[in-house]
User: What shape does this take?
Amino acid sequence: MMTRILLLVSLTGALAGSLGAQVSFDRLLNTGKEPQNWLTYSGTMMSQRHSPLTQITPENVKNLELQWIYQARSLEKFEATALVVDGIMYTVQAPNDVIALDATTGRVFWTYQFAPSQAARPCCGRVNRGLAILGDTLFMGTIDAHLIAIDAKNGKPLWDTTVAKADSGYAITHAPLIVKDKVIVGTAGGEFGIRGFIAAFDVRTGKEAWRFYTIPGPGEPGHETWAGDSWKTGGASVWMTGSYDPQLNLTYWGVGNPGPDYNGDVRKGDNLYSDSVVALDADTGKLKWYYQFSPHDEFDYDSVQVPVLADMQWQGKDGQKRPRKLMLWANRNGLFYALDRTSGEFLKGTPFVEVNWMNGFDEAGRPMKVTGKTPTAEGTLIFPGNHGGTNWNNPSYSPSTGLFYVGAWAGYSSNFVKRDDDEYTEGRRYTGGFQRSAIPGGATTPAPPTNTRNESEGYGAIRALDATTGERKWEFKMNDVTDGGILTTASDLLFSGGREGYFFALDARSGALLWKTAVGGTVASGPMTYSVGGRQYVAVAAGNSLFTFALRQ
Amino acid sequence: MWAFRVGTLVVAAGALLAQRSYSPGDVQDGQRLFLANCAACHGPEGDAVPGVDLGHGKFQRASSDDDLIKIMQKGIANTAMPPNNFTDFQAGTIVAYLRDMAKPAAQSTLAGGDVTAGKAIFEGKGGCLACHRVKGNGSRVGPELTDIGALRRAVELERSVLDPDAEILPQNRSFRVVTRDGAATTGRLLNQDAFTVQLMDSNERLKSFSKSDLREYAFVDKSPMPSYTGKLSPKELADLVSYLASLKGVEKQ
Assistant: This one.
């Protein structure tokens, strides 16, 4: 029986492949028409990580069983979300090996091995979070800040563009974003005094088409928000994938922390566009609007979270509800936001975890900071702590439930310590201080193998927020914190995991635990789902391996 | 265990003192190590570093096999030549390969051809793009050749053009499967295990089969590539080989 199914699967897969081998940009815009595939990092251009697949339901999810495991030949964190195109899975083995697998068996078709320069110095692991595909070409950013085009059929490189200097601290860790005939990436390195940017490259040639500096240069608006020469080394990195609205032709990207992280004295001003979302014209890279979540941040509150786009009814100031194009955002700074993604107008902001650095918003949507909440030589206790109320771990929005789901670090704080003697040297870490927390193992250090903390020291949770009010509807608690992304499905399932090494399914409406399995390593990736031969699979990377599940047959 | 170690040491010391002799298997092992570790700088012909021609015994600082082994292991200070973690035996097989390269039988008989003319033959008269791919042009069914000049010597390229069956690398083997309903697929074998087979078929599709669903499956011993013996003039052959040897992969920009 099993073998017959495999045959059917392979034939069906081949048929699908022959019908639509090329992944056109039109297919990327209309992923809802082919829910069997997962064609972009966040599932769709709206980045909701919500799948229309419904074969796995709250009733039968208890029958999920392991189908296959791919063990990476790498001991780095496995942070990538795989793509699946017509039965073929593509993913990245850290740091920068691309692998094509049979999505039903895990057998490898080909591997592209890339050896990044020894000069690469990513802050927080030699990691990669995924690929983009267009036509028959895959695109990967590398930890030594190259962008590489790879033939999806045979795994051979087509072009290799140096985006920035690895030995100055630049790196690329996120999956690129395709818009039309361009592939867009940003540069990490916010702890190394880089000057961040987002750039678009011609998909055929790898030639740069436009570049948007996330720190404005002399003469540009916003340059005055950086005292002296601090703009040259102000960070504002980009290390998570953006989103795209085809009607507005805007691409949205979250921007990282200003540098040095913990000493704002040397960069007086708001430090635009650090800790902001920027809306760029996808053809030219020109700034259409921005919103800054954390002006003059001193707590490393990167705002790199994937912008989640949603269309829903929104109550205006006149009390009437009208359809509105929104952007939903649970930020590292502990606040959940709704913005108008046409204009950038601030609509709502409300804490989703304990927050003590601000206590409300002014009329324009600017956070009002609490006096004295700033790093000092002795240390200042700030909620949320350095890792944030959430971090890069992918959120999800379900149009079915109307809820926004975030992997949160609840009740979590850090003591932020400022150092005045940190001077910029090219390629060296430049953070202006450090932080201490009751929760060990931030982005830069591995989590300990055991956990003896109590809840008052902070814990991990999946929190479900009403997307229109920010009100918490339910919470699923974990003892340990979470770096796991979230997937929801149209059958109202939610998949996620955490540092405890469980991968689990919750009822997306109630938060009830429906199924769990021990994967034996931290879930530090976004789960995804796909279907081959009429059978739905759920895949997640954990520890150093990729696990794939489907219903028992 | 102790006795065994002592014995090994004695043998190794003896080998270092004696002039070496190498088996054909040593030469093959050495070629693999050379291509993986040395060819990136020295080129597949061993002549890419100015003043050095490893395949013709032209070295800057070494002459004996033992000198070469030491340099491979320790590198050369203040030059681009790095130290390597080769055992004496591994480094010895690389020396074996270098010595073998210098033999007349291992040299291409073709003088330097015209790369541009060779490209025209590759894309025109030769019809090579029907199966091969270079920098995004051509078919993926046969071996991708974008970096073939960085991986293979001219003599090897010449031999492949004239006698494709002489050497088929494991990653380029053809495989044929027939499903229980009689559908046959022949393609380049990408991977296999006890239960499954992965191919690229003649339409460039990646396909995976369960062996229990196959009526038959087997390697195809012959290369699907035709021999160009008698089809190209000596000049055309030299041009074609020169073009292939010029293909060094995708350049970083």
Q: What stands out?
A: Residues 529 and 538 of chain A are 4 Å apart (CA to CA).
